[in-house]
Structure prediction request, 223 residues.
Amino acid sequence: MIKHRQAKGPFRFSTRLHLSELTGLRATTLSQFVTLIKEVPGSCIYHHTHRFLQQHQYLSPEPPNDFAYWVSEILGEDELGENLASIDTMEFSTISGLRAKITRTIEEYLQNNPMAKLKFARSGEEFHFVKSVSFILPTDYVAYNLEDFVQILKKITIDSIYFHIFEARLRLERSSNDFSFWIEDSLGDKLLADEICSFDPYTRTLEDLRNNIIHIIEKRILE
Prediction:
């Protein structure tokens, strides 16, 4: 039975501590904005596109990223804001790919709307670039089979789920998350791994995501 099938290697749950650090870089115009987006560390791109998800985990799905918010609410460029908000971050397994898409979206908009270059943010409303500094910490939880895994999943912190679902993809630059990778690689259950991987985590709160993963694993155990 899959419930008691021992994994080739255990799954060790980790968590992370997160600090936000100002870079000292700021933009007042779209031209400055896109230039800095090309130059800032990848941890800045990650911060401004993913940090919102964890800080506002109980809000309705699909919140805008910081770039889209500033462009729409401060500069009043609603069309560009919508274009930035509609970028599907799930398509990108690397920060460099996501950065290139954001840059291209802004540059194309400026080419078609040259007057947008003349807009300035008011004093105090500049875009301040912030970077994420993460510290990865091991937990005491280790799963040796699928039953262990689902029981631990019910009690680990939101920070741990966030780390293994969101940061794993960009950290390892692969299309999967840590949970799916372990289930396929160590338990040999590609069907279950693919089902978990098919979830779009950006359209759910983290608690909803936890509950959905628990549900499909428990269903799989009973098959």
In short: The CA atoms of residues 62 and 74 lie 20 Å apart. Residues 56-63 have pLDDT under 50 and may be disordered.
